[in-house]
Amino acid sequence: QVQLVESGGGLVQTGDSLRLSCAASGRTISSYSMGWFRQAPGKEREFVAALNRNGVSTEYADSVKGRFTISRITPWNTVYLQMNNLKPEDAAVYYCAASSVWSPSVRSSYDFWGQGTQVTVSS
After folding, report:
1. What is the pLDDT of residue 123?
2. What sign does the CA torsion over 110, 98, 79, 6 have?
3. What is the torsional sign of CA 58, 83, 44, 53?
4. What does the alpha-carbon distance between residue 63 and residue 17 come to, in Å, rounded to a whole number?
5. Model pLDDT for residues 75-96, shown as the tens digit of each residue
């Protein structure tokens, strides 16, 4: 079992950058495929990005391709989401999640979730 804690959210302006962190404890993140999801008020939680346990394969939602990058530092047991050129539509609570399989955009495939971190983007 792994515990996940997100941090790094905040209030930024359109075009700014932000890096979210997901610190894991209990098990090493290299045991899992890791994903980021987000949920805006009144909307379903949606897939943002994922990193395979091999640390190489990635997948991104079309809406963030070219702007967001998922990565990890295994010795620190931390996963990151670098977000560049932020837009108002990126505003949401961002969640980190861990999965024992590789079905990156399938929310139900993730076994463990963090509590989320709020990202607000002003126009």
Report:
1. 87
2. positive
3. positive
4. 16
5. 999 999 999 999 999 999 999 9
Sheet holding 3-7, edge to edge: 3-7, 18-25, 78-83, 68-73
For residue 41, give the 3-state DSSP assignment: coil
Residue with tokens 């993140």: 29
How would you class 119 by CB atoms within 10 Å of its CB: exposed for 0-12, middle for 13-18, buried for 19 or more?
buried
pLDDT tens-digit profile of 13-72?
A: 999 999 999 999 999 999 999 999 999 999 999 999 999 999 999 999 999 999 999 999
> 89, 64 in Cβ contact below 8 A?
no
User: Which of 108, 105, 98, 46 has its CA nearest to residue 77?
Assistant: 98
pLDDT at 58: 98
User: Quick count: other Cβ atoms within 10 Å of Cβ 63?
Assistant: 14
37, two tokens: 């999801």
Closest C-alpha among 75, 84, 96, 85 to residue 7: 96
